[in-house]
Amino acid sequence: MQLDLDLIWMVLLALGVSLAATLVLTPVVRRLAITVGAVDVPKDSRRMHKKPIPTIGGLAIFIGFLVSVLLFTEIDTQMRGILMGSMILVVLGVIDDIMDLPAKLKFVVQFVAAGIAVGHGCVIQTLSNPNLFSQAPYLNLGWLSIPVTLLWIVALTNAVNFIDGLDGLAAGVSAISAGTMLVIALMYSESSVAVVIAALLGACLGFLPFNFNPAKIFMGDTGATFLGYLLACMSVQGLFKYYAIVSFAVPFVLLGLPIFDICFAFLRRIAHGKSPMTADRSHMHHRLIDMGFSQKQAVAIAYVISALLGLSAVVLASTNTSRALILVGAIVVVGAVGLKVVFNTKKHEQALKDEEKTPVAAAAAAEKEETADGH
Fold first, then answer.
1. C-alpha to C-alpha distance for 161 and 55, rounded to whole angstroms
2. Most buried pick, 204, 237, 315, 370, via CB within 10 A?
3. What is the pTM of this model?
4. What string of DSSP letters covers 6-70?
5. How many Cα atoms sit within 13 Å of 49 on the Cβ side?
6. pLDDT value at position 92?
7. Among 58, 30, 52, which residue's Cα sits nearest to residue 39?
């Protein structure tokens, strides 16, 4: 495997421009958010912050990304569809961060955005065969390619949005996933995918200094849905093409943390007779907090899990050696953490009881707990 030096330089330029643009734009967007009233006020126990924080920070991420893509990427038909869909989601996100739109409406618009990308050729046409004993190296999805791609894009769009509950969590996990996808794209000389993902990585890195705990600004639905959508679309472009025996698992391993969280959330809500789109305080990051971890510790745990999964994805995509072992190891690590979080319910149950309190009482209890901890 020989890396293309010209591609490396282009990737570095795309990353640097998006990083610099996002660094400059985020304070501007923060002031804009305060002006238009796009401020997240802590009104329930799901929110981890104790004071109002400006949101729509995803607008800075999107603009920084877009500037870099327009400068360094050839906009073909598929990329045009992806950008059009992302613009729709960003507009939706800005409105939602200001007005709090109904979940059903957002869900419909997400399918519209996904449909635009699919209509422009962003489609999962084949999957590598998960059957280790089959002679066929890959499976042709046929007419299923369109619904499968739509579900993949919408599911991942919401998955990243679901984990956006702690300072720096969604941006950091997205950056790790984008960095992993970039390495795989460079390994296979997927130049168009590599440059776009580099721009996305740079935008995430440019936003993180303002989003680390204590956050100065949140990305809001504006940023979370955009990041999920882009990661989903670019995984279709760059990860579902390889026909090696277990590479079907690469995108699922690479994006394992948000996928695990959304699957667990949906199953939990359905089991309790609730709508899958109903917000609650039972996501993985909430449970980590209820187990006694601080925000920074919980985010660090999520980063480590994402990095381990990313490393596993690179190994799965690059070599036949020990693929199955690495995959099993990654599943065991994530499964062990997941089981620990799920079954350690003592503090979580108390947190759910606190959720029934009035917002004022819940905030007072949280402040008292912080004081007792010496923070």
1. 14
2. 204
3. 0.79
4. HHHHHHHHHHHHHHHHHHHHHHHHHHHHHHHT-EE---STT---SS-EE--THHHHHHHHHHHHH
5. 22
6. 94
7. 52
Distance CA 165, CA 148 (A): 28
- Per the structure, the complete domain to which residue 89 belongs is given by 5-243
pLDDT one-digit tens code per residue, 253-305: 777 778 877 777 777 667 767 766 666 666 676 677 767 777 888 888 888 88
d(CA 323, CA 78): 31
Q: Is residue 215 part of a domain?
A: yes
Query: Residue 237 has which token pair?
Result: 């472009």
Exposed e or buried b for every residue in 263-275, given b needs 16+ CB within 10 A? ebbbeebeeeeee
Q: What is the mean pLDDT of residues 17-41?
A: 92
pLDDT score at 204: 95
**Residues 132-181 pLDDT 10s:** 555 666 677 788 889 999 999 999 998 888 888 788 888 999 999 999 88
Top-confidence residue, 59 or 330? 59
Which is it for the CA torsion 247, 251, 253, 259, positive or negative? negative
Place of tokens 């618009």: 109
Q: Are residues 183 and 262 in contact, defined by beta-carbon separation less than 8 angstroms?
A: no
End-to-end alpha carbon distance in the chain: 51
C-alpha dist (Å) from residue 79 to 64, 84, 143, 148: 17, 8, 22, 19
Among the listed residues 155, 283, 278, the one whose alpha carbon sits nearest the alpha carbon of residue 228: 155
Q: How does strand 39-40 pair with strand 53-54?
A: antiparallel
Residue 311 lies in a domain: no
Extract the tokens encoding 268. Answer: 């939990």
Distances in Å between the Cα of 238 and the Cα atoms of 89, 94, 191 are: 22, 29, 10
Question: Position 2: which residue type?
Answer: Q
85 residue type, one letter: G
Residue 163 belongs to a domain: yes
Number of domains in the chain: 1
Q: Which residue in 306, 58, 342, 300 sits closest to 176, CA to CA? A: 306
Count of CB atoms situated within 10 Å of the CB of 34: 13
Distance CA 78, CA 119 (A): 9
Please calculate the CA angle 78-83-88 and round it to the nearest 5 degrees: 130
Please check whether residue 90 lies inside any domain of the structure: yes
